[in-house]
Design a protein that fits this description.
The chain is mainly beta. It has one domain (3-238). The chain has helices at 3-18, 32-37, 176-181, and strands at 51-61, 68-79, 84-88, 98-102, 108-113, 118-119, 151-158, 161-174, 200-207, 210-217, 226-228, 232-238. The chain has a twelve-stranded antiparallel beta sheet. Strand 4 (98-102) and strand 5 (108-113) form a beta hairpin. The longest helix is centred in the first third of the chain and has 16 residues, at 3-18. 30% of the residues are buried.
């Protein structure tokens, strides 16, 4: 099954599961040769000369038997200014599926469905974190550089109304060995040199003690190593 068909299949499932969060009133399908020798993406004109090319593997929980059944391989190109990320789910496509835009201070400001030509932003701006709200691609921005942020309120537009979500943000510190033992590091991951000596940060977002999303970060990296929600979990394969 292609990544495109997988996206179409998992999207309504994830959205259904996401609705379970209470609002207060206010695809291993990538060849190993890609991992060893590199891979190429179709890029549009005007791309910066220096780019970070990243591979992410996402798995999705089946709502019936609760197994991690569907898989999508995502391929990302991040420009040297780190303010624009383009995401492919199919390397044969000439244009990306999605595009993320960031502010000068590194916060996610825009999520664009390129094929549909429309913004996917449903969360109102201003909150220090951005949640993907059930989208297949794990674009949640948990403000990893901020080690002091705890309680946050985010507001989401839905059906013409605005709902407020009071969330708790916490950080736990792990070693690479501990993260491996908890299944947070893919056996296919190409990790940067020296990461074994660094302290990893596990950032979690909860609503009334229920986990919404968590991400595992390493210092001096601009993307997480692992990300998980109740219905989606993702691994960084190629940083």
């Amino acid at each position: 099954m292609s990544n495109k068909h997988t996206i179409q299949k998992v999207l309504p499932v994830i959205k259904t599961q996401t609705r379970k969060f209470r609002a207060t009133p206010f695809a291993y399908s990538v060849f190993i040769l890609f991992l060893i020798f590199g891979w190429s993406l179709p890029l549009s004109g005007g791309e910066p000369a220096e780019q970070t090319r990243r591979q992410i593997q996402s798995q999705y929980r089946d709502p019936v038997d609760q197994t991690w059944r569907q898989t999508i391989q995502w391929f990302c190109v991040q420009d040297s200014r780190q303010r624009l990320i383009k995401i492919w789910a199919d390397l044969s496509d000439k244009q990306p599926a999605y595009q993320l835009t960031y502010t000068p201070d590194g916060l996610l400001s825009e999520v664009l469905d390129v094929s549909a030509g429309q913004s996917l932003n449903s969360q109102q701006p201003g909150a220090p974190i951005v949640l993907s709200w059930g989208h297949p691609f794990p674009y949640d921005d948990l403000n990893p550089g901020n080690t002091e942020l705890t309680d946050v309120v985010v507001k989401k537009n839905a059906g013409g109304s605005v709902f407020g979500y009071k969330l708790n943000r916490s950080i736990e510190y792990l070693s690479l060995a501990e993260a491996r033992s908890q299944g947070m590091i893919s056996t296919d991951a190409l990790l940067p040199a020296g990461i074994a000596a660094t302290r990893l940060r596990l950032i979690s977002i909860r609503q009334d003690a229920r986990l919404m999303v968590r991400q595992l970060w390493a210092d001096n990296m601009d993307w997480w190593l692992f990300e998980e929600t109740p219905v989606r979990r993702s691994y960084l394969i190629r940083p």
